[in-house]
Design a protein that fits this description.
The complex is a heterotrimer of chains A (about 325), B (about 300) and C (about 525).
Chain A lengths: L1 H30 L4 H5 L6 H10 L6 H13 L13 H36 L4 H14 L3 H15 L11 H8 L1 H27 L2 H8 L4 H29 L3 H6 L5 H10 L3 H29 L7
Helix pairs in contact in A: 1-14, 5-6, 5-9, 5-11, 5-14, 6-9, 7-9, 9-11, 11-14, 13-14
Chain B lengths: L6 H16 L6 H18 L1 H4 L31 H37 L1 H16 L2 H12 L3 H11 L2 H14 L3 H8 L4 H37 L11 H8 L8 H28 L8
Helix pairs in contact in B: 2-4, 2-12, 4-7, 4-8, 4-10, 4-12, 6-7, 8-10, 10-11, 10-12, 11-12
Chain C lengths: L2 H19 L28 E6 L14 H10 L4 E3 L6 E3 L2 E6 L5 E6 L12 H12 L12 E8 L2 E6 L6 H5 L9 H6 L1 H4 L9 E7 L3 E6 L18 E6 L3 H9 L5 E3 L3 H8 L4 E6 L3 E7 L9 H10 L2 H7 L29 H11 L6 E6 L3 H17 L3 E6 L1 H10 L4 E7 L5 H9 L17 H12 L3 H17 L4 E4 L3 E6 L2 E2 L15 E2 L2
Parallel strand pairs in C: 1-10, 1-11, 14-15, 14-16
Antiparallel strand pairs in C: 2-3, 4-5, 5-7, 6-7, 8-9, 9-10, 11-18, 12-18, 13-16, 13-17, 19-20
Helix pairs in contact in C: 9-11, 14-15, 15-16
The chains are: A mainly alpha (about 325), B mainly alpha (about 300), C alpha+beta (about 525).
């Protein structure tokens, strides 16, 4: 019950932020030079054509009116029609949200799968060569530009070894898992080092705490202590970092999506901004904002799941 | 999230840290190695003209895409410019980028967070909403808009980052402040009649700086990576100014037959990133392990 | 007689019929044209299979009226037909949905007799569909309406005949009917749901759209009702399906071709072309298209308003170096301000690379040292490289410049507003009559107010010559006019042209007949794959 109440409260709190974001976005659209119709028609159209098309899209109305229309429509679930692609924005976004969310989740999963065992190994063999190796390896992949890392993975696994596909996102759940492995690995290799650093030091710190001494005194094996007692407490700050960084990633999947030809929201965002497709931009800004806040909320919820002593809110 | 801090040992640590800084021998090994790496990069950047006879901007159209050789240790790029030279000069650009994009927002972000954390009330709620908006708004839209209005280049990148880069430091400062403002030594200071501002600046800030400083090491790396992503999208540093990420981005179009163009600047980013990360980790362990959690 | 010579004779007869009916001035016999008869598929064709084609642009809609991006246009051409179509090379015109047509002696009335053809849903193609589609194309809201400005009325005479009356005779008119915007749509389906048509189009072309996943891929399936016949006497296309994938990263396209994921790719980077060509089971396609890479010059802004300065820019640019370092030798140095089209005059001499002469012209123009802003659309590596090379070459003669990468929208906005100095960009033609582009680029006072495609280049003599070339139907006269226009405009320093850039595609050896047409797209209905 607490959980549901908390979730509802957080969702409600998102609304003013979403409104704030759309206001900022609308403001930016006004400041942005260039106009979608001129770009769309490719420069060979006459002024009458351009004027007629602008009127059709309601672009000749004053800004505040456009904003009010938008809000009224949005409350009915209608996010407008894309100027560039002539389809409802909601449909465009729904088609593309899948790949992006899948990519982020998969990337996070890989990051977590890499982080937990590597951190435990690192902490248990602290200051030994393997610990240094893991940490330095992490610092290296952390510092690689994502498009470069992506291209290297494509070259290695796509061409030389031919193990994984190099473009697109496949059909069906298993297809997605196969096609998105390389890009998600690129994301995971970026996220994991920060998480390993944090988790490792938390593990080390907590390992020295009293209740762990007590467990050891009771004769429990070190691994078991590590997993059952230490890990739970150590995870909390790590989850924070994960939350912050995924939030940052949500807007930043563009590069990975471009390199791996994934039909996600990032590519749509770039395309919309380049072509000044205002309705789509606003729609995407809302979706991105919502995703970021949901991720943060999930991070907060997971604290409670990990450690029953943590109180929500 | 808030990070617990024990006030008396904080003060002690601050004192110990000042003396520790003076005695390099007591530095943890990663801090030492990291500092050495960074020092080397800085020296390479500063002494670039001495280390190479070639011009990083002017190309030789008869000598394009040459593989590594004695004359050109890392080959030439598509305009006939020496890759080793461009990478060296690019160090200047990237170091400048990384430091400015990190430490300027750190300054005002931390300040904001500390002040607001101390004062609380509606300041606090307003600022936190602002932080939420800054975080939730897609950065890409922001940068494209700024570039479209102001034109592309380093300045536009700075402005975009200054708009949103402060949020992490603000949160860190505020989180720590929320905890320590109830701590005894601050209550004592207030009881003794010191003004709020004085308390903030002379007593609280030095402790709160630690977490931000540690995070800033990772942030520098993230900002250099951001510059390279923007170069990939065509919105970063403008040519012909050399910048590591831009050279890697240019080189990717020739990856299959002129692999050397992307490789050296890519390695340069990795090594610099390594340096900053090591310093960060070393600083964290020196200042107390708790600060590592904010990385 | 065997099938091949039958087809050859048929082709010749058809050609003769076309030649007899249309005045030679249509331009189909321009220097670059080839007869359709020589292009028959000779080897034994294998039917069936799926061609996976990787592109760097995606289609935004399948509605012929509306888009102007190649991502959409090239695929629209596979789904619909026009009354008159470009031929196999794209330089000439052949019958499309209209199997023959008559033109009145005064050149004002065109009567088209339709084939018996069906749309992909079985509906017959009637004159009602034709008038509906052409009315849409001519409607001022259509970006390509300027091509139909001379049209007075479009009428359906009977179910299979359409009559178009012009306000004034216009030789390029038939070419305009071949443009993608004039593709014929199924009126009933369109009117039932106009907004959905772009997603689920119904046309009479060789393929139909069975899957349209935006940002990802399009699946084209052969149209069972298609009326054109192949080399084996049965209807084309030979392929069962074409999977068109959107792969924006050029390295991925190349790797995908190499490892067999893709059968054909477009947009091969020049730097990779030679290595692909020398790969054993891959062929490189280098096809001549209506494409010119050049430097747009804003003739309204000082110092570019001075012809001497523009010529200085030309003399100071080492085009051979650019051709070599950016295009890796693919293409030819242009001697024109438009792409190489029908009536291109190869005798117009090239402005040579001569820094000394450049300095003389520079001095004559009184250049004071202002920095020229070179605009480059962001994210385009070859253009950026050209800009960097220009900067270097120009500074060698004393011209200062700075590079400005802007996103396409912002860059275009500046060009349209006249707020730019020079821009590295290109121009293509969707119409195979040279009038459209030459007028756009060279005529300040042309319809559409683009002022010479935003160059603001003014030359009354050129405008007059263009009008004359438009009105006459005599091929030799037209050739002479366009030759003069080309010489004047080019030597006025209208722009700094870099390359008649060819279309670079690559395909694996089991793909046959894959080639790029002059307008930029491909006749996918002629492609077949061996096992």
């Amino acid at each position: 019950m607490r959980v549901i109440g908390y979730t509802v409260r957080r969702l409600v709190e998102m609304i003013p932020v979403l409104v704030g974001i759309t206001l900022v976005a609308f403001l930016f659209m006004q400041l942005l030079p260039g106009d979608p119709i001129t770009i769309l028609t490719g420069g060979k159209a006459s002024p009458q054509t351009i004027a007629a098309l602008r009127a059709e899209y309601g672009l000749n109305k004053p800004v505040y009116m456009q904003y009010l229309f938008f809000v009224r429509n949005a409350l009915h679930g209608n996010l407008g029609t894309s100027i560039l692609q002539q389809v409802p924005v909601a449909q465009l976004v729904l088609q593309r949200v899948g790949p992006t969310v899948f990519l982020l989740s998969y990337g996070t999963l890989i990051a977590v799968l890499l982080t937990v065992p590597l951190s435990i190994l690192s902490a248990m063999r602290a200051d030994r060569p393997i610990d240094h190796g893991i940490r330095i390896g992490g610092m290296v992949t952390f510092a690689m530009p994502s498009f470069w890392l992506g291209l290297l993975l494509i070259l290695l696994f796509g061409l030389k070894l031919h193990w994984f596909p190099i473009a697109g996102w496949g059909e069906g759940f298993l297809g997605h898992l196969y096609y998105l492995f390389l890009p998600s690995l690129a994301i995971g290799l970026f996220l994991a080092p920060m998480l390993v650093q944090s988790l490792r030091s938390s593990l080390l710190e907590i390992t020295e705490a009293e209740y762990i001494e007590a467990a050891r005194a009771k004769g429990l094996k070190p691994t078991r202590i590590m997993v059952k007692h230490v890990l739970r407490n150590a995870l909390i700050p790590t989850v924070t970092i994960l939350g912050v960084n995924i939030g940052w990633l949500v807007g930043g999947t563009v590069v990975i999506e471009t390199v791996f030809s994934i039909p996600g929201l990032g590519q749509l965002l770039i395309q919309s901004v380049l072509y000044r497709d205002y309705p789509t931009i606003i729609g995407l800004v809302i979706v991105f904002g919502f995703l970021v806040m949901v991720v943060n909320m999930l991070a907060d919820l997971s604290y409670a799941a990990i450690d029953p002593r943590v109180e929500l809110g | 999230m808030t990070v617990a801090a024990d006030n008396t040992s904080d003060v002690e640590r601050v004192l110990r840290r000042h003396s520790a800084l003076r005695s390099i021998r007591r530095w943890p090994i990663n801090l030492r190695i990291g500092t050495v790496i960074l020092a080397i990069i800085v020296l390479l950047a500063v002494f670039a003209p001495v280390l190479t006879p070639h011009n990083p901007i002017v190309g030789n159209f008869q000598a394009t895409l040459l593989p590594p050789s004695w004359a050109h240790p890392m080959g030439t790029d598509e305009l006939g410019r020496d890759v080793w030279t461009r990478t060296l000069y690019a160090a200047r650009t990237d170091l400048q980028l990384g430091l400015i994009m990190t430490y300027v927002p750190l300054a005002y972000g931390l300040m904001l967070g500390v002040i607001v954390g101390f004062l609380g009330g509606w300041f606090d709620r307003l600022l936190m909403r602002l932080v939420d908006i800054a975080i939730a708004f897609p950065f890409l839209v922001l940068i494209i808009v700024i570039v479209a209005i102001l034109g592309p280049g380093i300045k536009s990148m700075y402005i975009a980052v200054f708009c949103v880069g402060w949020t992490m430091y603000c949160r860190l400062g505020r989180a720590d402040m929320l905890v320590i403002r109830e701590q005894e030594y601050l209550l004592a200071a207030r009881a003794l009649g010191f003004g709020s501002w004085r308390i903030i600046f002379r007593h609280a800030l030095p402790n709160l700086l630690a977490a931000s400083l540690v995070f800033s090491m990772a942030d520098v790396v993230l900002n250099i990576l951001l510059a390279s992503s923007l170069s990939f999208l065509g919105m970063g540093v403008q040519p012909p100014t050399p910048e590591w990420g831009a050279i890697v981005a240019e080189g990717r179009n020739f990856m299959l037959q002129a692999w050397w163009i992307s490789t050296l600047p890519g390695i340069a980013i990795i090594v610099t990133g390594l340096g900053f990360s090591l310093v960060g980790v070393g600083l964290a362990s020196m200042l107390g392990r708790r600060y590592v959690q904010t990385l | 007689m065997d099938k091949d010579s039958c087809k050859r004779i048929l082709g010749l007869v058809l050609l003769a019929a076309v030649m007899a009916v249309i005045p030679a001035a249509v331009g189909a016999c321009g220097s670059a044209a080839q007869t359709t008869a020589s292009k028959t598929a000779s080897a034994a064709v294998t039917r069936g299979g799926d061609l996976t084609l990787a592109r760097f642009q995606e289609p935004l809609t399948f509605d012929p009226v509306g888009p102007s991006d190649n991502g959409s246009i090239y695929l629209i051409e596979q789904v619909f037909n026009t009354l008159v179509e470009p031929d196999q090379t794209g330089n000439g015109l052949v019958p499309g949905l209209a199997e023959k047509w008559d033109i009145s002696p005064n050149g004002l009335v065109y009567t088209f007799h339709l084939q018996s053809a069906k749309f992909s849903n079985g509906d017959p193609v009637t004159s009602a569909d034709v008038t509906f589609s052409l009315d849409r194309a001519a409607n001022p809201k259509c970006p390509y309406a300027f091509l139909f400005v001379d049209v007075k009325t479009i009428q359906a005479v009977d179910a299979n005949t359409v009559r178009i009356t012009l306000k004034a005779p216009s030789t390029p008119f038939l070419s305009s009917l071949a443009v993608f915007a004039a593709n014929i749509v199924d009126k009933a389906v369109y009117e039932a749901n106009p907004k959905a048509f772009g997603n689920k189009p119904v046309g009479s072309g060789p393929f139909m759209v069975t899957k349209y996943s935006r940002g990802n891929e399009v699946l084209l399936t052969r149209n069972p009702y298609y009326w054109k016949l192949g080399a084996d006497g049965k209807p084309v296309p030979y392929l069962d399906t074409v999977t068109v994938k959107y792969v924006p990263e050029s390295n991925s396209r190349i790797l995908g071709l190499r490892n067999g994921t893709f059968d054909a790719i477009e947009g091969v980077p020049f730097s990779e072309a030679k290595s692909l060509a020398s790969t054993s089971d891959i062929s490189l396609g280098v096809d001549s298209v209506y494409n010119l890479d050049y430097l747009y010059i804003n003739h309204q802004k000082a110092p570019l308003s001075d012809k001497n300065f523009d010529l200085a820019l030309n003399y100071a640019t080492d085009r051979q170096a650019i051709l070599h370092t950016v295009f890796f030798g693919y293409g030819t140095i242009p001697n024109s301000f438009t792409p190489k089209m029908n009536f291109w005059d190869k005798s117009v001499s090239l402005i040579p690379y001569d820094p000394a002469t450049a300095k003389q012209y520079l001095a004559k123009s009184g250049y004071g040292g202002t920095t020229i802003q070179i605009l480059v659309p962001a994210g385009d590596a070859p253009r950026l490289q050209i800009a960097e090379e220009l900067q270097q070459m120009w500074s060698a003669v004393g011209i200062k410049s700075a590079i400005q990468q802007l996103d396409i929208g912002a860059a275009w906005n500046k060009v349209v507003a006249g707020d730019y100095d020079v821009e590295v960009n290109m121009i293509t033609s969707d119409v195979n009559d040279p009038d459209e582009l030459a007028t756009f680029e060279g005529d300040y006072w042309a319809v559409g107010d683009s002022h010479g495609f935003y160059s603001r280049y003014k030359n009354r003599e050129v405008t007059d010559l263009l009008a004359k070339a438009r009105e006459t139907s005599n091929a030799q006269e037209r050739a002479s006019y366009y030759g003069q226009i080309q010489k004047i405009v080019y030597w006025d320093g209208y722009s700094v042209p870099f390359n008649f850039t060819p279309a670079m595609t690559a395909y694996s050896d089991h793909v046959h007949n894959f080639r790029t047409v002059a307008e930029g797209w491909w006749w996918l209905d002629q492609v077949w794959m061996s096992k």
